[in-house]
Amino acid sequence: MKETYIDILNIRRSAFEHIAKIAYENRPITDIALEVYDILPGEQSIFRGNIFLERAVMGERLRLGIGLDARTADKTDAITKGLDEMDVNHRIYNPPLVSVIKIACQACPENKVTVTDQCMACIGHPCVNVCPKNAITYTPKGSIIDQDKCIKCGKCVEACPYNAINHQKRPCASSCGVNAIHSDELGRADIDSDTCVACGRCISTCPFGAISDKSEIYQLVKSIQSAKKTYAIIAPSFVGQFGPNVSPEQTREAIKKLGFDEVIEVGLGADLTTMNEAHEYLEKVPTGEFPFMGTSCCFSWKLMVRQKFPEINDYISESSTPMIYTGLQLKKKDPNCEITFIGPCISKKLEALEPEVAEVIDFVITYEELLGMFLAKGIEPSEIEADEIMMDASETGRNYANSGGVAEAVVRRAKEIKPGIEVDVEGAEGLGNCVKLAQMAKLGRMDGKLIEGMACQGGCVGGPGVVIAENKTGKAVKAFAKASEFKSPADNIHIPKQDRPNDEVLK
């Protein structure tokens, strides 16, 4: 899905590039108003009804990219209104994180079954026969569906031998695993921010690019330009994101050219998560203290459980996520440094707002936003020389990026602590499947198991902020994992002894 929407992706990246360029060049933040014309020159529109609408949508996209809210068409204030408040070198977050750019939304039908011109008006008319509400009428010119009677069950769609009946669903809403998207009074998509868990699937699936999350790359660049020491910590899914011929080491050096002092693998923190979750599972599940234990890595999964299934929330691992553990390791060495998490996930932007996390993580950006920064600075990772081998994480820590990787790491570590123990694993990828998994756990059908919830298809490699689709990067992540000198988290020499759980008490 990601790469099939190439025009939308180019628009998004162009917005990130121009925002970052303004920041790096120390131009007035109000120059964003001028960038609209640079991005969309001339008098003719490319994708929308007219150039004025196209520029208006881009203006709202740029406002979201600077951290402001997207506005509706009844707002007549200048595009620059409120920008001065965002001209800072620290995080500014005004909820909600994910918004619909209303003037870009085409008010797609939420749920509609229609007969197409492919109908052959067959005398068997199975569509009429299977309809439980008598909503379909046969005519010699083709079947007709009474929309007032239709319950959108889809039986007629399945029954038609000519595939002549279409069940149209709003792409963003059908992709939302927690049913957070409905319609406003004008039929446009509307997101319930109290239900949304920021998985970002709606952003990836909207064919009109009408949904976006807020960015903080402008504020990040201003922070980099300050006197503070800045570290970038990069998620395990980064391998292959900037081209098949770009090595992990080249990516690291490219990020340093943006102004970061150092770049560390988040796989380091994943090793700590693995050790702590394995310890926690052995301590609580076999003993009967917990009926099961869920992994803690995916924040959208954790947030969904917290909101929809509070009864089982206590059984989600108390261990911190790899992002937090990595940040803590750096803060211990340099308490005054600033840390930016770079990854595929937009829900990490919400996780970083949690009080205990906000003290550790200063900024969160996606690979898409990182690419925009590369473009702004004219950095091409494939052209960079990089000799020093990247070696911050173990094989299993690096493989967190793939679906099943977290659970596999925990199981392997649990067996290292207690040889011969059997750990039954159940996993789900995609937020809708995560909801089903949590429901099964609530009903007691996951007892004794380690369950892994990953909101994105394929795991983190399928996140909404990736540059390259998961089917092209998953293998690269596995290869990078196998290249690690540390086969177990316990082998990782970068983790101090005092930060490791005491597994001896379990033996």
Characterization of the model:
The protein has 19 helices and 15 strands. It has 507 residues and is an alpha/beta fold. The chain has three domains: 2-104 and 178-219; 111-169, Alpha-Beta Plaits; 228-491, Fe-only Hydrogenase (Larger Subunit), Chain L, domain 3. Strands 10-9-12-13 form a four-stranded parallel beta sheet, sandwiched between helices. The longest helix has 19 residues, at 6-24. It is globular, with a radius of gyration of 25 Å.
Could you provide a short overview of the structure?
It contains 19 helices and 15 strands. It has helices at residues 6-24, 32-39, 51-65, 126-130, 155-159, 171-175, 201-205, 217-224, 248-256, 267-284, 299-308, 322-333, 347-351, 355-358, 367-377, 395-398, 405-417, 431-442, 470-482; strands at residues 98-100, 111-115, 136-137, 144-145, 165-169, 181-183, 189-191, 211-213, 230-234, 262-265, 293-294, 338-343, 363-366, 424-429, 449-454.
pLDDT below 50 for ≥5 consecutive residues: which ranges?
none
Neighbour order of strands in the largest sheet: 10-9-12-13
Which class best fits the helix and strand makeup? alpha/beta
Strand count, sense and barrel status of the largest sheet are: 4 strands, parallel
CATH homology-level superfamily of the largest domain: Fe-only Hydrogenase (Larger Subunit), Chain L, domain 3
| Computed Rg | 25 Å
The coarse overall form would be globular
Number of domains: 3
Q: Hey, roughly how much beta strand do the residues contain?
A: 5-15%
Averaged pLDDT, please? Answer: 96
CATH top level class name of the largest domain = Alpha Beta
Number of strands: 15
What is the count of DSSP helices, taking H or I runs of 4+ residues?
19
Portion of residues in helices?
25-40%
